């Protein structure tokens, strides 16, 4: 990004500023520390000289023996050494206090979402209900991302979601796996409020491929097993077949043992999306949510993936968010979102007849306004 926008100088300056700040602070701190050592040395030698001076006089006066003076020396030396150590400890404590304060900030941070007292572990089925849901990201900001959402989805249905950018599609599905809590109303999965479930159990049974999906450094198999640590090689391969990821994995020299770089840097956008879908499938979820997860996959593969869903996980409720009409038109019902509100929720045919927004999107994509390589 930096290269593409020719922002090297700007970024360099930003870094230089930050590091020179750090440099100045360190020089100041080390300057004070450097003063500590000579000060201690002056004190030590001052003591030694004074003890020698007075000790010699006492020996001459017969009050002290040479042996006494020698033991006096060793007492004083160990006392001074300990004092020196103590001064170092004080310095160390001051330094670590600064770190302790920062660590404490992190440790004492409490998450907004809490597990209930007696959490429900099992999700009954894949039905989803939104009951008059309002939601805003900043509570009290007055700007709501979703308002008055009332939806009832039966278990096993395939639902398409379509709407302009910022219309609240991602927000809607994030509420289902309880990444956020609603402001008012309720979201139910399997007939129970999502706030009654153990969060881990809920998320294990509601599988979501986020719009900003990521892979982690490790082999393909390791990445797939994020979905299910106990999955066998064959189960992983089957999930990849359903997600149409097998075709490119088989062409890799190391196959399923190919290393993925951090963030999936060494696979293409479409390959990454397919791996993320396979990973979500491995959970064998009751609800599968794909948030624009086939946007970088060609239309034909997209159709194959959807056909595989219908074949492999017929009982799973599938929610497919897409920008392309072709990705959602064969869904049981399609939800049209507009500015955080439900504009319509019906089948493809009915929407074409009755919904202006849907018809507009459809016409812009089908009548020559679609892919540029298709003849108008
Ligand atoms: N983490 C966030 N914090 C604050 N506001 C947010 C956050 N995420 C989204 N929003 C706002 O909520 C609204 C809905 O966003 P959302 O991500 O649901 O849109 P979307 O329909 O998924 O869009 P797209 O098609 O671009 O993915 C937008 O106005 C957006 O600015
Ligand atoms: Mg989105």
Short key terms for the protein model shown above:
48% helix, 376 residues, alpha/beta, binds magnesium ion, elongated, Rossmann fold, 16% strand, binds adenosine-5'-triphosphate, 2 domains
Describe the structure in your own words:
- With 376 residues, this protein is of the alpha/beta class.
- The protein has two domains: 8-107; 128-366, P-loop containing nucleotide triphosphate hydrolases (Rossmann fold).
- It is built from twelve helices and twelve strands.
- The strands form three sheets. Strands 6-9-10-3-11-12 form a six-stranded mixed β-sheet, with helices on both faces. It has a four-stranded antiparallel β-sheet with strand order 2-1-4-5, covered by helices on one side. It has a two-stranded antiparallel sheet with strand order 7-8.
- Helix 1 runs antiparallel to helix 2, helix 6 (233-242) crosses helix 8 and helix 11 (348-354) crosses helix 12.
- The model has no long low-confidence stretch (mean pLDDT 89).
- The structure holds adenosine-5'-triphosphate and magnesium ion (MG).
- Adenosine-5'-triphosphate binds at residues 137, 145, 163, 165-171, 211, 292.
